[in-house]
Specification:
The chain has 462 residues and is α/β, with parallel strands linked by helices. It contains 15 helices and 20 strands. The protein folds into three domains: 155 residues, 3-Layer(aba) Sandwich (Alpha-D-Glucose-1,6-Bisphosphate, Chain A, domain 3); 200 residues, Alpha-D-Glucose-1,6-Bisphosphate, Chain A, domain 3 (3-Layer(aba) Sandwich), CATH 3.40.120; 84 residues, 2-Layer Sandwich (TATA-Binding Protein), CATH 3.30.310. It has a seven-stranded mixed β-sheet, with helices on both faces. The protein has a five-stranded antiparallel β-sheet with strand order 16-20-19-18-17. The chain is globular.
Length: 462
Amino acid sequence: MTLIKSISGIRGTIGGIVGDNLTPVDAVKFASAYGTFLKNNISKDKLKVVIGRDARISGPMIHNLVVNTLIGLGIDVIDLGLSTTPTVEVAVPLEKADGGIILTASHNPKQWNALKLLNSKGEFLSGADGAVILEIAESEAFVFSEVDNLGTITVITDYMDRHINEILNLKLVDVEAVKAKKFKVVVDGVNSSGGIVIPDLLEKMGVEVVKLYCEPNGHFPHNPEPLKEHLGDICKLVVEEKADFGIVVDPDVDRLAFISNDGEMFGEEYTLVAVADYVLSKTPGNTVSNMSSSRALRDITEKHNGSYKASAVGEVNVVEMMKATNAVIGGEGNGGIIYPETHYGRDSLVGVALFLTHLANLNVTVAELRASYPQYFMSKNKIELTPSIDVDLILEKMAEKYANEEITTIDGVKIDFAENWAHLRKSNTEPIIRIYTEAKTQEIADELALKVIDEIKEIAGL
């Protein structure tokens, strides 16, 4: 069982010992720290925070604890109930709130939950702000309100519908073109909020929907990370239903993966590539993804005469670089689309709407579209950490070993070879080292990954 405290929030497994797991005490403690941080930094008589959650089994319990903690601090709560991460991000500025909390552990299994913390723009907190909140939590310097100054709750249950409408009104979303194509799409909502909002969006765009695991009961039917090894059921159903493609989202709907019409994975990395191809064709400009994302985005950006930049891993880092470079689209290779015309956050809904419009304009199958892009293959691996392993020393020695190659160390170690690359880094959310490699064939990517893993194990004495 695990509790991970990071600058992006607190994430852990439900139950167990206080301080070692995400217990009710820990949920109250970190909600208190966040509320105290807001009160210390915003000079207003009454603060307001938006709260939403995914469909995890522990969601209602954690939700009630967090909401009532904020009320105890004298903070008013806008309660969206069952929602998505991007929906809460959209709601914060629309409600003129001072912050937001999404209760979700994203792609982690059902025993996990988390508090994801937002600022008044509906964006993830900076690393500096996250560090301050961790300090407040450690000190437990909380001052709660007296009875006449308690916060209030306002329940708003239709924000996912409002979010859909915001997307349908985007200039680059052509609902009529999509309707004319009469697409048929299978949706795997992993029994969370995506099982509601993605079918609703598709139906408003005139798409015939085949639902798979779309009951938001929190009982995930497979590992909720949208990777090939977890998605056999939808791959099979797309072919059986003769669907145009399939859509898979994670429990909080900020990661998006497609299944091609032939039942093959479109590729998480290529979600952003395809959507960026469409956006850049209409609004030329720059793009950003993180260092662990495919070179294919760089190639597509340069095809449209734009400039591509790679940031450190983490949504807040991608957003920061997007703003610095005036990027028209960006995101992460895990299927996260960030389209500033809506908001600076990963959003599967906007990704779906833009992808559908792109497909409607091209008159090709999804498999043909995928084949039209630069062909890169990735291998994503990880090594479990133990307390005895000095990760920083391992990364330092790996950088020394490949000093004759192009080395980047802003986030772990990235080794750029002429035809491929390897990126080694500590995870922000799990006690592991991630090893990502990419090459022109899957065989070469896998071989490079195994070589790097063997070298790491040799250094670590594993």
